[in-house]
# Entry
Amino acid sequence: VLRLGSSAARAMPAAPKRQRSASLDRAALLAAAAPKRRGRKPELSVLQDDASAAPLPPPSLADVLDRASTLAAFMSKVSEAGVAATLDSAAVALVLRRLPSLLAAAAIAPEDTLEQRLEAGEGIEVAALPSKWPSDSVARTQLMQSGANGGGEGIGNPGTSPFLWAHERIEEVLDDTELRQAASFSWLADTAVFYGTLRPGPPFPVHILEDCADEALRRLVDVSIARQNGSEEECLAQACRLARGAAMSHALARHRIYAEVARRVAAKVREGAQHVFGSALHDAALSLALVRPWDSEAAQAAASLLLALKTRWGRPATSSAGACTKGVEEGILQPVLASSSKAGERNGEAKKNQDVCFTSMEGGVVVMMIVDGHGKRGGQAAGELRDALKRQLPHIPRGPSATKGLADALLVADAALLLHPKIDAEHSGATCAVLRIEGLDGRGPSGRRLAVAHLGDCRAIMGRCEEGGKLWSTVRLTEDHRPDEALEAARLLAAGGRVRKAPLQVAASSGGGGGSSSSNGKPPKANFEDCEGFGGPSRLWHRGNGGLGPGAAL
# Structure
């Protein structure tokens, strides 16, 4: 949890060492924010064996922050740099990447009390961040000192001081045309994702997102600028990530960046470009889904992207069951594929079964899939998710790349679900598990390979027959993604979510399906203050949205 994003941070160029000054040094900011030029050879220092060898340069501030293992140590180093005006843009990027996970770890600690806190109805989320220093000079001084000392009693959110120092530097970069244009695309995307995820304030600094989106749009539209900022693929991926961050804020619902990235991703999908079949495509779809209702430009872009997703992979694979298919030698293997599903119960009565299954075998490759729908439209969502996955199955690569192929297929399928015109993917969704076995064409056990991908609490278990069929054992192939498990809770909190059990009146009506519905088809407001207790599973809720229902779509 504490190391998220560190590898990307180490790739950031370090700013040159500077003297203390009251404001940022423009040359250093330009050097640190500028993207690396392609083809340029790195400058290497050769150490001599004699005593006259020059000493190694001190580590950059970004490297120091990257090695900070606790929030207190992180706070101290950021605050020292802020007071000394040495917080360069590379270090700011480290703050933006690492602070959410550090705050999430602090919110969950101690981990052994997490279950007890959730049972008591506590909502677990990262502490709120202000968007400006206290106006009172004494309070400001105390906050600065507490940051330099690694925190202390009575300071509120321990992440306040490092964030506000970074916030000052970010505003200085974005307010200066030359500095803003020199900033790398990844720096802009990191900024947008942080502000959109943790939503500091009030007041929320929406101008930060506007500046980042404006600059990203300028670079995408101007081909000459795009070439100066890295490859086209990398720029598009960062622009999609930036759009997702802006959309997650719920404060920038109208901007051309959403339609622009969706149109460009749709074009790449039609061309068959492989690099968009993962997180970049999903980011583009999610950003559009979060800014509904759409204006005409966004609606056209969403329709174009959805059409590209449905036509790119052609017809879906057909389901098959029974004995072996052609290519599986008789007497070596006779696999049988089958599926069964039983509806759960709520208050002693059977619930509507919203599970869908799929099995297929072709050319010695077996695929099995279970999709578990949640929410009022869970059955429809499960069916759409299954069909989207089926369209991609014939294109999953063989060999070691199969697992990543399945994972990318899940992202593509979810992207199609997010853009579906008739499914409310915010309050209805599905979890799933997909299992793929290749090498069942007579090559023996050494030629077989198993790949699994899953989302949520859908689980894959393998039965293993031993001792000539006399003993069976089970092997767990997946670990559930549950909001009440510490690592998963930390991931959700760092991504801007809240984990909490539902009030009994909501939990009793929703069961395990993700929320009851009101007259408008959406979950009713959850009354956390005036309720008889809390029940059901721990859920992922919208953070800062008051009484809106939990997000059922994982």
User: Anything to note?
Assistant: Strands lie at 345-346, 349-350, 355-362, 365-374, 429-438, 449-455, 461-466, 471-476, 498-503, 534-541. Confidence is low (pLDDT under 50) at residues 1-51, 321-329, 511-519. The CA atoms of residues 435 and 452 lie 5 Å apart.
